[in-house]
Amino acid sequence: FKNNLYLCKDINKLIIMGEEIKNRRIAYFICCIAAFAERYNLTDKQAFGYLQRFKGIDFLIECYEAEHQPSISDAVLDLTTICHRNGGKLI
Fold first, then answer.
1. Rounded CA gap, 20 and 41, in Å?
2. Beta bridge partners of 6
3. Cα pseudo-dihedral 10, 13, 14, 16, rounded to 10
4. What pLDDT is attached to residue 5?
5. Model confidence pTM above 0.85
6. Over the stretch 69-78, which tens digit does the pLDDT of each residue have?
7. DSSP 8-state code for residue 70
8. SS3 sequence of 25-69
9. DSSP, res 80
10. From 49, 64, 76, 90, which residue has the greatest number of CB atoms within 10 Å?
């Protein structure tokens, strides 16, 4: 994502490889994964794998309605907590 991700902080203007993402949920998930990767110095692929393994992706999907209201940095903290509860070691 990082090489082709522009303006991730503004989900309404998220563009990947020249294509505007119109689905807000997908844009939100991409931004959360990219922010998580940046926070823990991971590649986007590593971040996605970690979040998938330790139930972070499931959390984002199940709790989207409430979770997308606060900031992306708050979502990263929540993802860290959820993953830690499910065996993840990143803190």
1. 26
2. 15
3. -150
4. 44
5. no
6. 888 999 999 9
7. S
8. HHHHHHHHHHHHHHHCCCCHHHHHHHHHHCCHHHHHHHCHHHHCC
9. H
10. 76
